[in-house]
Design goal:
This protein has 439 residues and is an all-alpha fold. It has 19 helices and no strands. The chain has a single domain, classed as MFS general substrate transporter like domains (Growth Hormone, Chain: A), CATH 1.20.1250.20. The chain is globular and about 65 Å long.
């Protein structure tokens, strides 16, 4: 179907001048990548903590990720419209304030305590992050030369990974650290004692999220006052406004974009699924035999690997073909997950943790490959790719159902399949064809 309306050219953005130095703007926007990475990764600590408090099975625990990442599908397109209405900078501020509201909503959820209210708070947090993603990813991608877009986005995503690396230790210390009873011990308590224990344990969530909410408000004020470069459209959009024009572009016929949407869906799903199960996986006797708090600390190796890999990737992608780098990284991740599934003990533990290193370049590289050559449809294509982050809702939830039936160890077959597809996308599916014009 031809794209028949483009309300503002702001959806198609290019720098005002090739020689302009955007270092300061990149530094400021990079703080957003850190914050949403930090908050997203806190879910990996929150999930086992809430599972212990409310005695949840794996499928029920994964509802945190289900509702969190579903926000990308629900609010992705509206966030794109908000960008058109108020611009990139104001959308970033709005996203930060929405996230702060979600942080404050954790307080009444802990006071009750109520698992559904925790899920509501998670949705609000994710709504704010969705707005940030829709505004910041394409902003960074075009804030410089097109040929270095993958490298630039990898660099900013490295700081996103810094947030995900720090978050598990922060959350393990402040949230899980207070947990002293196992699920069996909790079940043995009287109803009154069990409720008292739940209230006490749920209260450990308050301080971290209140602190985060205050920090987000401060960051929103800083972003609002900073003079970010204005990015303006540089193409004539009339051709895509008229669906009867012979120059009208069919977005859905851009094969590399559509396959890229599937790749983002599967990548985010695989990454989030592994991260969400790691604490429980490493807690198992045959794998790591670690306490929940100690296992939460080991999450830092998984997310830290992604951080290191993105710094390395930012340099490598200056020289090597992005598609080939993506395909190679995905295939190595496939082999590591397979090794973990076929082994036990340290081999199983460290092979699954090492997947983080090869996850590193996948999101930013898929993103830039997906929007390559779209020209005036870059904004529309970016919106589709951001919506595909909903994979982080679906795949962990399905893996939770698998884990309840066949065990956590074998449930990793789902990420295994995801990495196989991403290998294909990097090596073959990401090669763009010329934009297809309507007949």
């Amino acid at each position: 179907m031809a794209i028949s309306t483009v309300t503002k050219p702001a959806a198609v953005i290019t720098p005002q001048g090739e020689s302009t130095n955007y270092t300061a703007a990149m530094a400021v926007v990079t703080t957003l990548f850190f914050m949403w990475g930090f908050i997203t990764c806190l879910n990996d600590v929150l999930i086992p903590h809430l599972g212990n408090i409310f005695d949840l099975n794996y499928e029920q625990r994964m509802r945190v990720q289900l509702v969190f990442f579903s926000a990308y599908a629900v609010f992705g397109v509206p966030s794109g419209k908000v960008v058109e209405w108020i611009g990139y900078q104001k959308t970033m501020v709005l996203g930060l304030l929405t996230m702060a509201l979600g942080g404050f909503l954790m307080v009444p959820a802990a006071n009750v305590p109520s698992y559904p209210l925790f899920l509501v708070a998670a949705v609000v947090l994710a709504t704010g992050i969705t707005a940030l993603q829709v505004a910041a990813n394409p902003y960074v991608a075009v804030l410089g030369k097109p040929e270095t877009a993958s490298s630039r986005l990898n660099l900013t995503q490295a700081f996103n990974s810094l947030g995900t690396t720090v978050a598990p230790r922060f959350g393990g210390w402040l949230i899980i650290g207070a947990t002293v009873l196992t699920a069996v011990q909790i079940a043995a308590l009287s109803p009154e004692a069990r409720q008292s224990y739940r209230v006490h344990e749920a209260s450990t969530v308050k301080v971290p999220y209140i602190g985060l909410a205050i920090a987000l408000i401060v960051l929103a004020a800083v972003i609002g006052m900073f003079e970010l470069p204005k990015l303006l459209g540089d193409v004539d959009t009339t051709a895509i406004e008229d669906p009867n024009s012979k120059h009208a572009i069919r977005l859905w016929e851009q094969r590399h974009l559509i396959l890229g949407v599937v790749a983002i869906f599967l990548y985010v799903g695989a990454e989030v699924a592994i991260g969400s199960f790691l604490v429980n996986y490493l807690n198992q006797k045959e794998i790591g035999n670690l306490t929940l708090q100690r296992a939460a600390e080991y999450l830092s190796y998984y997310w830290g690997g992604a951080m290191v890999g993105r710094f390395i990737g930012a340099a490598i992608l200056q020289k090597l073909n992005p598609g080939k780098v993506l395909g190679t990284a995905a295939f190595v991740a496939f082999l590591l997950v397979l090794l973990s599934m076929l082994s036990f003990g340290n081999v199983a533990m460290w092979s699954i943790l090492a997947v983080g290193l090869f996850n590193s370049i996948m999101f930013p590289t898929i993103f830039t490959l997906g929007i390559a050559g779209l020209g005036p449809l870059t904004g529309e294509g970016s919106g589709l790719l951001v919506m595909a982050i909903v994979g982080g809702a679906i795949i962990p939830w399905v893996q939770g159902m698998f884990a309840d039936r066949i065990g956590v160890h074998h449930a990793f077959i789902l990420p295994l399949i995801c990495y196989l597809y991403i290998t294909y996308y990097g090596l073959r599916g990401s090669k763009p064809k010329q934009l297809v014009a309507a007949a």
